[in-house]
Amino acid sequence: MAEVITMPRLSDTMTDGKVAKWHKKVGDAVKEGDILAEIETDKAVQDFESEFNGTLLYVGTEEGGSSPVDSVLAIIGEQGEDISQLKGGMLDEGVSEKKEEQKIDEEHKTENESSSIEETTAEIPAGVEVITMPRLSDTMTEGKVAKWHFKVGDEVKEGDVLAEIETDKAVQDFESEVKGTLLYASVAEGEASPVDTVLAIIGPAGTDVSGLTLGGAKNSASKPAATETSATAETSQEKTETPSAENSSTERLAISPLAKKMAEDKGIDVQSLKGSGENGRIVKKDIENYQPETSAAKSEKNAVSAPKNSEAAAPAPMNFVQGEDSETPNSQVRNIIAKRLAESKFTAPHYYLIVEINMDKAIVARKEINSLPNTKISFNDMIIKATAIALRKHPQVNSTWRDDKIIHHGNINVGVAVAIPDGLVVPVLKNADQMNYNQISAAVKDMAGRAKSKGLKANEMEGSTFSISNLGMFGIETFTSIINQPNSAILSVGAIVEKPIVKYGQIVVGNVMKLSLACDHRVVDGATGAEFLQTLRTYLEQPLTLLL
Predict the structure, then answer these.
(1) What residue stretches are annotated with the Lipoyl-binding domain (predicted)?
(2) C-alpha separations of 44 from 19, 47, 50, 341, 483 in Å
(3) Which CATH architecture has domain 332-547?
């Protein structure tokens, strides 16, 4: 019976795949484990192995062509087998039915959730208000209740802080817009729920709201069942697939190219494997099903068989105090930091430029500026000012990549990375090029202080067009940063250190600082980034040029 091969999903963000190269043509014999084609995803080109034996009867996507995930890629069967029904519509219909079933399931789930909300809304008693999880930032998808300020049964007044909601950027107070008794709290302290789901119910004391909470309880109860079913299915699949690796011959080593590469990447000794492919050939699923316990057992065996004289020469065992591992649930901020930095690192092609700055004149200039009444600026303030002015001359560095265009920002908004206990946040100095030293200093101190006490508002961390990270205060001389999307560059500032330099033909002690610029190569070319750093170096080494 012919087997239908569909376009595989080779990455979590893949929606369609391009056939970079076919390794087989229609009519060729195909063995399990053979590389059928090279598939180009949104991230890389990967070998795609056949899981079946037979003849390649049909190719659904030509070399260089693209097709959606789960669409027909090829058909493998017996030589001369009639596949006219598959090609004539039954296949497409089957695939469509499958997709339609998935779509119906999703719509049915959505309808169930929507109907619960609609039924709840229709039966809301007089004077009762349903409070939903608010969207406190433009990127917020769910919120975590950091703390409840009221418990069920408490009287709530309009304007009272009902709870502290932790978003993907900060912890913010959430005020009640109605007055009454807190009748129901759907999210426990420390738990999270999606935006627009029921957070609380407020109304007259003694009001029965069980009908409003019933739908949510049913929906919640259904989730573990689905998880359990999925886990059972995975366990069953593992039990079914694992024995197949034990049925092959060990007389010689036969391995597919993809399986060999996967084994090398994972450090697996293929000599210890038994293949499940034809004639004992090691294929992709053998590598995927590899159990590392084999290696552990091997190590234990080697340890047991160690020479006796080595045992005699072994030193006496040392007694160590054993520590215990602990787990800390990730905060919403930490999860978002992890997600965004990973997206930036693996989406934007980073490259790095490093320049050394002589800070002698900047040190003198700062001392003179700080001698003025009510003035105290830091080197970081001077760097922010110089960077903002340099961005005026190099607008390409002050840009954002979009799939079909580059956005050149009209304003210069500098984000300044601030470390907080949960990770880091990046408050933004809007129109930094138009601010003087005192304004920059005051703004940075204010926002850094409020960032550490979780007092920043969401709009104070949005809209940056360029970012700066400074670790110089920790004695770090140079480092590189991950670009803060959607910026196209980030400046990393190191410590000012004394070192020998050549000045006017003489070796003298100078004050040197290193700057590192990480750039998105889709927007900022190497020469553009270098010219920007050259301008910035001039401003810092000759502070008076900022006045020109």
Answers:
(1) 2-77, 128-203
(2) 12, 10, 19, 19, 21
(3) 2-Layer Sandwich (3.30)
Calpha distance 520→425 (Å, rounded): 21
Q: Which of 36-45, 188-197, 351-360 has the highest mean pLDDT?
A: 351-360
Ordered alpha helix ranges (H), 39-130? 84-85, 91-122
In sequence order, the β-bridge partners of residue 519 are: 351, 489
- Tell me the angle at which helices 379-393 and 526-541 cross, rounded to the nearest 10 degrees: 130
- Which residue of the set 82, 154, 269, 525 is catalytic? 525
Ramachandran area for residue 123 (φ above 0: left; ψ -120 to 50: alpha; else beta): alpha
Domain ranges in the chain are 3-81, 126-207, 332-547
> Catalytic: 42?
no
pLDDT of residue 294 exceeding 80, the answer is no
**DSSP 8-state symbol, 293:** H
Judged against a pLDDT cut of 60, whether residue 497 lies above it is answered with yes
Burial of 450 (0-12, 13-18, 19+ CB in 10 A): middle
Q: 3-class SS at 170? A: coil
Q: Which amino acid is at 85?
A: Q
Checking if the pLDDT of 236 tops 50, the result is no
Distance CA 406, CA 140 (A): 25
pLDDT band at 45 (very low <50, low <70, confident <90, very high): low
Distance in angstroms (rounded) separating the CA atoms of residues 311 and 288: 37
Active-site residue, from 23, 70, 446, 521: 521
Residues 358 and 510 sit within 8 Å (Cβ to Cβ): yes
What is the CATH number assigned to the segment(s) 126-207? 2.40.50.100
Classified as helix, coil or strand, 51 is coil
pTM here is 0.52
Amino acid 287: pLDDT: 82
pLDDT digit string (tens) for 517-548?
A: 999 999 999 999 999 999 999 999 999 999 87
Residue 525 annotated in active site: yes
User: Which CATH architecture fits 3-81?
Assistant: Beta Barrel (2.40)
pLDDT tens digits for range 127-160: 889 999 988 776 788 999 999 999 999 999 887 8
For residue 399, the SS3 value is strand
